Give the backbone structure.
Amino acid sequence: MKRPILLHPDPRLKKLCEPVPDLSDARRALAADMLETMYAAPGIGLAAPQVGVLERLIVLDCDKADDAAPRPLVMFNPEIVAASDDTSTYEEGCLSIPDQFADVTRPAAVTVRWLDEGGAERQEDMEGLWATCVQHEIDHLDGRLFIDHIGAMRRQMITRRMVKLKRERAREAL
């Protein structure tokens, strides 16, 4: 089931998320809903707080080539256990901040540990777009948005645009 995506500014997007205590069928269904929502948006990552659930769950699929088979990853309680000293800069966007982009510098490679849908602990080294995306989504779980990594003036400008967009959408919904 496709879920509505919260738009910035929304206080739920700035909250620290709680660890997932158990992998119930309801949480696995949430993960499936999040993947459907992410693909429909379309996006390459989505965090539970973006659909109003304040738990440590992210989904991502960063294989963007037209001929690439989908590689969806569902991560319960993801954590970065190592990060490279080397950095890379990507132009980031966010499904909760539509049509707004900014260059963000992050570690170029990370090692991530998480629980998969079956409850098994997994660990993977990620680089390139995968590393950027997983860091972006884990930031959501800590109440941070990509605009928190840019200058204050640019962040305020983007926030004003989002307030205006939310007002326009509210008027359209009437």
Remarks:
- Helices lie at 25-40, 128-141, 152-173.
- The mean pLDDT is 95.
- Strands lie at 45-47, 57-60, 73-83, 87-94, 97-107, 109-115, 121-127.
